[in-house]
Amino acid sequence: MTSFSIDARHAWADAHVEPSIDDILADPIIHLVLRRDGLTPGAVKARLDQERRRLGFLPQELGRAA
Question: Is residue 48 in some structural domain?
Answer without folding.
Answer: yes
